[in-house]
Amino acid sequence: TDHGETLVTDLIICCTGLKINSAAYSATFNDSMAENGALKVNGHLQVDGFSNIFAVGDCTNVNEPKTAYNAGFHAAVAVANIANSVSGKELTSYQTGNVTMLLAMGHDDGVGQYNGFRLPRWFVAWGKSRDVLVWKSWKEMKQKQP
Ligand SMILES: Cc1cc2nc3c(=O)[nH]c(=O)nc-3n(C[C@H](O)[C@H](O)[C@H](O)COP(=O)(O)OP(=O)(O)OC[C@H]3O[C@@H](n4cnc5c(N)ncnc54)[C@H](O)[C@@H]3O)c2cc1C
């Protein structure tokens, strides 16, 4: 360790956490940023101070686990709201759901919860660990998996 201590371990899991990289927008949206560099958004996912700019995914200050799963829901709301803005319809809102998390632990094991309910390990292994949902990305991109 940084104090010269030696630890004998079987496994080390590095958990450094994620830091928002705001380099792409910090100059332009400085006034719309939270302290950690996230973009402040309202319930419609509009960036603070702008009605025609939306943010989705990890860069937002939505208070929830930062996952691709949630980013997909953000995207659906932002896309709908861009269309709604253009057609003059009422904007839709993003609601954070209960925590859903499927954690693959190798090919044959995993833990997870869906909408607050703990899932059986075999179910997570069957549903996610075997191929980490790669099929879903191929499907969403309308491509055939080779
Ligand atoms: C180890 C790990 C495991 C994860 N597992 C899961 C999981 O199982 N399920 C799940 O749902 N989520 C998971 N996540 C979280 C998921 O990866 C993120 O929530 C998701 O990728 C966020 O998508 P995003 O498009 O908002 O941001 P990102 O995927 O981070 O995309 C941002 C992109 O912008 C680019 N970029 C940044 N700055 C600039 C710039 N100045 N110019 C040009 N490009 C720039 C970056 O290179 C990056 O490609 C995991 C994350 C990690 C780190």
From TrEMBL:
GO molecular function, one term: electron-transferring-flavoprotein dehydrogenase activity
Keywords: FAD, Flavoprotein, Oxidoreductase
Cofactor: 6-hydroxy-FAD
The FAD/NAD(P)-binding domain, residue ranges: 2-74
Keyword hit for Oxidoreductase: yes
Gene3D superfamilies hit by this protein: 3.50.50.100
GO cellular component terms, semicolon-separated: mitochondrion
Superkingdom per UniProt: Eukaryota
GO BP term (any one): positive regulation of apoptotic process
Catalytic activity as recorded in UniProt: ubiquinone-10 + NADH + H(+) = ubiquinol-10 + NAD(+); phylloquinone + NADH + H(+) = phylloquinol + NAD(+); menaquinone-4 + NADH + H(+) = menaquinol-4 + NAD(+); menadione + NADH + H(+) = menadiol + NAD(+)
Stated family: Belongs to the FAD-dependent oxidoreductase family.
This protein's name: Ferroptosis suppressor protein 1
Species this chain originates from: Pundamilia nyererei
